[in-house]
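Next comes the chain:
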Amino acid sequence: MNTGLTFFLVITLFCFAADALECYVCSSSSSNTVCNQKTQNCSGSDDTCMTTVTHVVGIQSIQKACSLSVPCMTAAANSISFVIGGNTVTCCTTDLCNVNGFAITRLNVLLLVLPAALLVMSFGTS
């Protein structure tokens, strides 16, 4: 009886361990390549991979971590982005899904800067 119970507990623990979300993790990295060198199996309560990219006048810093979904979604909803700086948070829920948060933010900054540059150029020619 004890052997069967022990076997059941070991199998149950193995199944729960296999379900842990895996995220890329880093703190204050300026390169997504460097940031994607370390992964972490999230704790049982963490169900989201969170990527935070902060940029100020062309200097960018990226952080990736395991998180709970509600704080991540709240941070993402409060993201701000201006031409000279900002803070962008993205959340995802599959293994290693936060691989390219940095590239997405660079594209967003480019899309913000391009219309501003066109606007300045149009006023400059008048």
About this structure: The chain has four helices and seven strands. The longest strand covers residues 48-56.
